[in-house]
């Protein structure tokens, strides 16, 4: 998914904070229109005002459930990415993915679509012409570490993911490892992403104590360690925890990872390390977009009915890398 804001603020993140971190911090979403004035709205919890990342997770958009019967639904034109992985996960509906590698895949509930940008890729996302009446899901980004940022772009779709079941609920492991269950998805830093379906109270899951963790509520009725968490809100849980207790019935996304020690700059759809890297990527995209050049760094997305997104103007001051917390 693209950050389609026409005047995107510089997002600075990465680096271990020097001050002690709070054990619990509630991250409220901000509303962002996904496209033009009549586009659907998403709730963005990462990056947040003070906390930019959870492990390598650097971006989290939550949308729906929204009724799209008789409407276009999601329509995100071709746009570029560098330095990250995009993670698409649905609870209801379908999203058609196309990318400059020639991939064409329909995202469905319970199936993971993972795109690794490396040094450059472009893709589009749209509700197919024949779509379900409700769309509900999340889009996340994972920052690539410095030694992996030039990895070759690739796309994965995983329809058979490991599930941990116990009294009170089940957890589907999207990325990384949870209590011995390992996702087949390719990762580049130690991290965890899991959908937690809570049937009742006291669904207990073990955690990796070296990770920091957060929980994003996807449906009403969620409690985390006895604390209510509203839909679309993320509860940051800090580090050092060995388990977590969910209450419901509800659905949530559990995110975790080792704190991301590198300083990074995130602007528009790019994750880089300094202003020059971002500026080069922007120029390369604009040249590729205007020429429709499939041999460019970002390639070309075939089959989407409409022009690619134009990159917004860079700010008048240099983009600066800073720590992952403000």
From TrEMBL:
Co-factor(s): Fe cation
Details of cofactor binding: Binds 1 Fe cation per subunit.
UniProt keyword annotations, A-Z: Iron, Metal-binding
Residues bound to Fe cation: 79, 81, 123, 125
Domain Pirin C-terminal: residue ranges: 200-289
UniProt domain Pirin N-terminal: residue ranges: 44-142
InterPro entries: Pirin, Pirin_C_dom, Pirin_N_dom, RmlC-like_jellyroll, RmlC_Cupin_sf
Lineage: superkingdom: Bacteria
Pfam families: Pirin, Pirin_C
Alphabetized Gene3D superfamilies for the sequence: Jelly Rolls
GO MF assignments: metal ion binding
Family: Belongs to the pirin family.
Name of the protein this chain belongs to: Pirin-like protein
Organism in which the protein naturally occurs: Saccharopolyspora erythraea (strain ATCC 11635 / DSM 40517 / JCM 4748 / NBRC 13426 / NCIMB 8594 / NRRL 2338)
């Amino acid at each position: 998914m693209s950050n389609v804001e026409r005047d995107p603020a510089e997002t600075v993140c990465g680096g271990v904070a020097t001050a002690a971190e709070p054990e619990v911090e509630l991250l409220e979403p901000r509303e962002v229109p996904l496209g033009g004035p009549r586009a659907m709205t998403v709730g963005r919890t990462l990056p947040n005002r003070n906390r930019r990342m959870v492990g390598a997770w650097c971006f989290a958009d939550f949308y729906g459930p929204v009724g799209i019967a008789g409407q276009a639904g999601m329509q995100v034109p071709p746009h570029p990415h560098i330095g990250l992985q995009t993670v698409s996960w649905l609870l209801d509906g379908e999203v058609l993915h196309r990318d400059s590698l020639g991939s064409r895949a329909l995202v469905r509930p319970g199936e993971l679509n993972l795109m690794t940008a490396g040094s450059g890729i472009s893709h589009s996302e749209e509700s197919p012409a024949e779509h379900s009446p409700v769309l509900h899901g999340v889009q996340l980004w994972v920052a690539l570490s410095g030694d992996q940022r030039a990895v070759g772009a690739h796309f994965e779709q995983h329809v058979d993911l490991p599930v941990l079941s116990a009294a009170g609920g089940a957890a589907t492991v999207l990325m990384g490892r949870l209590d011995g269950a390992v996702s087949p998805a390719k990762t580049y830093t130690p991290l965890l992403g899991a959908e937690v379906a809570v049937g009742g109270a006291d669904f207990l899951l073990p955690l990796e104590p070296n990770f920091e963790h957060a929980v994003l509520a996807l449906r009403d009725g969620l409690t985390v360690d006895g604390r209510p968490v509203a839909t679309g809100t993320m509860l940051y849980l800090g580090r050092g925890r060995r388990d977590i207790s969910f209450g419901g019935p509800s659905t949530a996304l559990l995110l975790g990872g080792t704190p991301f020690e590198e300083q990074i700059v995130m602007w528009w759809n790019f994750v880089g390390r300094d202003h020059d890297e971002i500026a080069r990527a922007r120029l390369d995209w604009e040249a590729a977009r205007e020429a429709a050049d499939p041999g460019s760094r970002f390639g070309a997305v075939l089959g989407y009915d409409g022009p690619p997104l134009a990159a917004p103007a860079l700010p008048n001051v240099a983009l600066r890398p800073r720590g992952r917390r403000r």
